[in-house]
Amino acid sequence: MTDPRAGATPERLVTVKRRDGFAHVALDSPHNRNALSDGLVSELHRAFADAEADPGVRGVVLTHTGGTFCAGADLSAASTSPVGDPATARANQLIDLLRVLVTLEKPVIGRIDGHVRAGGIGLVAACDIAIAGPRSSFALTESRLGLAAAVISVTVLPRLTSRAAADLFLTGRTIGPAEAERAGLVTRAADDVDAAVSDVLADLSGCSPQGLRESKLLVNHWLVAALTRDRERLVDQSARLFGSDEAHEGMRSFLERRPPRWAPP
Questions:
Q1: Cα→Cα distances 163→69, 139, 168, 184, 193, Å
Q2: What's the rounded Cα separation, in Å, for the pair 94 and 72?
Q3: How far apart are CA 256 and CA 254, in angstroms?
Q4: Of 43, 8, 46, nearest to 29 (Cα)?
Q5: What is the pLDDT of residues 3-25, one digit of tens each?
Q6: Global model pTM greater than 0.70
């Protein structure tokens, strides 16, 4: 019997549209809330490489389909234990992705109008400019799962005030777009996210490619240095935590929709 799927084109997890000199890159895996699966990360790398190589692209708009921008790590994969060292591989994969956003020689504008959790917040923080719509919500939920936001701290901590960082990293509570703007996580909270992004793109269109490239190099100098300096420490911490018994319980409880053993019912 012939397999009807044979020869079928694999489903895309990232979609790219080019409009008016900008590449609009959308996380398009709503079935798992745009979690950072191996496939989605690989397609993001390809989309950003294509945008950087295209002289007709002035910048990238990073956005999403569905009601979630990005749910962070794919916990269904992270909670399994295949051969090798998958926790270290995933941590390296994520820090490589953050580095791509930070070092891309063109501005990256985040267009967020949905839920952002855990590793997804690292992507938002890696954007040069981030606009949050009214349906946005943000939470660093790692502490509730026996984890810590280790790898993404390299982009998130420089954006936040120190008090906001302690609050959000420790409590795992959810905040809306206005509080995210006050904390420094996003550039602007907007009632009309598309109009706000259009205004930013209009401003960028009036700038020279060299001016944008060199200005981004200046403002991201310390982020790039931190990505190099702190990489090994953060990857080691992330891998250690993902391999712990407490994190396994936290991830299982999340997938089973029950309280972890350390939380009240």
A1: 25, 15, 9, 11, 27
A2: 10
A3: 5
A4: 43
A5: 334 444 468 999 999 999 999 99
A6: yes
